[in-house]
Amino acid sequence: MKALQIPVVELPKETDELRREIRQFLKEEIENGSIVPKCDCWLSGFSAEFSKKMGERGWIGMTWPKKYGGGERSSVERYVVTEEMLAAGAPVSGHWIADRQSGPLFLKFGTEDQKQFFLPKIAKGECFFAIGLSEPNAGSDLANIQTRAVKVDNGWVLNGSKIWTSGAHVAHYSIVLCRTSPQDPNNRHAGMSQLIVDLKAPGVTIRPIHLMTGEHHFNEVFFEDVFIPDEMVVGEVGNGWAQGMAELAYERSGPERILSTYPLLNELTNILVENKDRNGLKQVSRLVSRMWTLRNMSLGIAQLLEEGVPSNIIASLVKDMGTKFEQEIAEITRLLVSVVPSTDSESLIEKYLAQSILQSPGFTLRGGTNEILRGIIAKGVIQQ
Amino acid sequence: MSEMKEMIIESASKMFEKYSTKEAVNESEKGVWAGDLWNSLAENGMLTVAVPEELGGSGGDYDDALSILRLAGKYSAPIPLAETYMANWLLAKFDIPVGNDILTVAYEKNMQPFQFNKDGEGFVVTGKAKNVPWARYADKLIVLGETSDGTIFSLLDLKDAQINQGKNMAGEARDEVIFDHVFVNDPVNRFIGRDDFEKTVLYSGALTKSVLMAGALEKILEVTINHTNERNQFGRPLHRFQAIQHHIAHLAGESASAGLAASYAVDSFEKDPFSKEIALAKIRVNEAAGKGNPIAHQVLAAIGFTYEHTLHHSTRRLWSWRDEFGTESEWEEVVTDELLNLDKDGLWSLITGVENYSKEVEVK
Ligand SMILES: Cc1cc2nc3c(=O)[nH]c(=O)nc-3n(C[C@H](O)[C@H](O)[C@H](O)COP(=O)(O)OP(=O)(O)OC[C@H]3O[C@@H](n4cnc5c(N)ncnc54)[C@H](O)[C@@H]3O)c2cc1C
Question: What is the pTM of this model?
């Protein structure tokens, strides 16, 4: 079936050196105590300082034009950087969203001024973005958003609220999807726009929502008569839905949909190898076979996206299977090692296992639930 | 994909479509040789792909041959195409010319070599092999042999053999072949280490099975989707039910995973005939068969459970093939051997194929 065809990617030899450079850097960062690896690092590992160091090394905005602070490198090289960071559990959440989707959104739909203003800062690791999509009554049914902006002289006035906004309390801006014309029952996706909201602007209030572990990760963000200048509209007024959807394949097929619990799998393997535990390692072999397949799918999609081939169906497949795989690593680990998982344990396996289990419900929710993804996949292949 | 490959795939598809029909597959199970299919592949040079022209082959690479084989899997082609490729590639490696003979290979875990006792110009051959694919139709068989001078592989003419018919779950011929003191005049023999022979057959067997299975998994996805379009219940097509959509999504994932895993195994084979990719792929493809078959049968319900429907052509093959040339468990043992040798934090190097330090640096 054409829609499910994914190419075999031969990683260029030059990327081997890049990998070693990253690994050496990470080894030093961990050894000198600058960073503490953890599971689910791309959402819950934050370090402004670390993001800045990555920016200095040219590892943010890698594929963007040089005139905007990018590195004009290939998406495969970017893939290498992101997966090395995830495998090491490095604190990359600060810049993750800006690097993955806000920057590319500006490149595709932004004005020249927006590109010149935002992209270099993002690439330096100094400017973080949050995703302003979900609302209390618009989760899976995102088209039901109520937050709206009304036209005034030189700009828009924004009212409403967003919820579950990851990292809003540390981000500088959020790209907010809102209504700019009233809801049209005949076209649910019409009349929406994307606005860049300065999270320090008057009228913006950010309230923490604590995760079940007590961690402060996501937030509720309220907008009360927030003035948004015309220059802060992304792309066309009214085209917000289509613009947002265009980026979904990037969001759904990246290595972060496979590797959120990789530090745990690595630690499990270390222990089983040390104990020469053949039976345990056989189960790891099965996981390795799955992970190898998923990674190849994800890499293949990265290449297709660079070539401009629509990949929404396979990207959704990777996210559905990859996130379940991330959860399964924890389930298999706990049966192979007899430990007491705890987030404050000194032992890596106990710590990573606790992190993986306690973060795991989010894997299959964030960025579109697996149920919604399966609907997209099924409809996609049926139409073929 | 190269233009050449597209042409090969297009013409092979036509042949399978024409000759590997529902009737041909069912007839084959009743004991009728699919001669038209075999002959048309032979006439088009498709049996000897990836063997150089100097040796009587039609050239091309493994990827070309295995693209044809994937189609054979998709169409449940009831012929020993995989076995013939395996045999031809082994012969070609030893510079032995090949033709359009129907070939098969004897392989079992811990198999007993055939005994070759020198007798004048020839040998008296004695041995027994079980579950030999398609032996009743094959012209020749490759076996592991033992002579007074060492282990060999030999290409034996099957007309001299006693054959007891057997079958796998798909009704494909899996016969017992017995040579009981048969005199063979000047057979094609080559010295080969026992391990080398076994590994060569095991890995090429697992590779070809993975490719066939990837084709069959593609087929059951297509059959399932078509069924949900055509069958109505409660006044609408089945695919409108969300429970059915989720089945389809799950099956699509298994099918796509198996397809890509097989492609990576194919890609690795040229560089390393005993690659870890072949092991990882067979594990993943087997798993996909185990997960995919029940989904297809659940969605097709009673009609898919009948002989009349063709779903079983693929699902029975998948259930049979996943155990041929290594179950998940057996290949996991192989991967485990590699894992046991890992340095601390070495798993990532294994997955990415890149060591933490470049080898050149280490040497200095
Ligand atoms: C860790 C985490 C981080 C997040 N970060 C952000 C962020 O930064 N920005 C942001 O905007 N949002 C964020 N979200 C929100 C996330 O996108 C939503 O949680 C998600 O889209 C689901 O919405 P909901 O929670 O309202 O669930 P609901 O939509 O209410 O769904 C409840 C259940 O019903 C199922 N369901 C709903 N509709 C259907 C249907 N049509 N068919 C079948 N099943 C259905 C769902 O799959 C789910 O199982 C985050 C969520 C998490 C968990």
Answer: 0.96
